[in-house]
Amino acid sequence: MTSFATTLDAADRLTLEEQEELADTLRRRIAEKRRAELVAAVKNSRIEFARGDCKPVSVGAIMKQFLRAARRLAKRHPTMADDFQAALELLAEDAHHPALRTHKLKGKLAKSWACSAGYDLRIVFQFVRHGAHEAILLEAVGTHDEVY
């Protein structure tokens, strides 16, 4: 029997309340690991950007990368796809539109901003200078627990 199967058998012997507590604990730990991964990725991106390692990218290339992430999101959370698309369009027009509830983040993500793209969907980004223009550097998209 595999370790995973052994673990499932052990979980089956728990009461329903203990199983719910275990599931909640696992969800919190997964969210914490995802947050740590996101913080590390953002930190590396900021270092690359500060060094000038980031090359100018066309809008089409940005959309291609972000659409790939959006497809993954839509596959995991099919009901959020329309909200995500609408939020991106609104973000491109007016990052501070009241419907987005754009807000500055604190702590490890203090240089970033976030906006809502639905009940539990967030887009994390930074305002950056690109040449003479202000631009939005998209950093992450996901549920509240995945990005914070």
Give a topology summary.
Blueprint: H1 3-12, H2 16-51, H3 59-76, H4 81-93, E1 103-104, E2 113-116, E3 121-130, E4 133-143, H5 144-147
Antiparallel strand pairs: 1-2, 2-3, 3-4
CA(first)-CA(last) distance? 37 Å
Briefly note the structural class of the backbone. Answer: alpha+beta
Strand share of the residues? 15-25%
Please tell me what the overall shape is.
elongated
The low-confidence parts are none
Largest sheet: 4 strands, antiparallel
Spatial strand order of the main sheet: 1-2-3-4
User: Count of DSSP helices?
Assistant: 5
Gyration radius, in Å: 19 Å
Overall residue-averaged pLDDT value:
82
Could you spell the SSE succession in H and E letters? HHHHEEEEH
Describe the protein.
The chain is α+β, with helices and mostly antiparallel strands and 148 residues long. 55% of the residues lie in helices and 18% in strands. The protein is built from 5 helices and 4 strands, in the order H-H-H-H-E-E-E-E-H. It has helices at residues 3-12, 16-51, 59-76, 81-93, 144-147, and strands at 103-104, 113-116, 121-130, 133-143. A 4-stranded antiparallel sheet has the order 1-2-3-4. Strand 3 and strand 4 form a beta hairpin. The radius of gyration is 19 Å and the shape is elongated. The two termini are 37 Å apart. The mean pLDDT is 82.
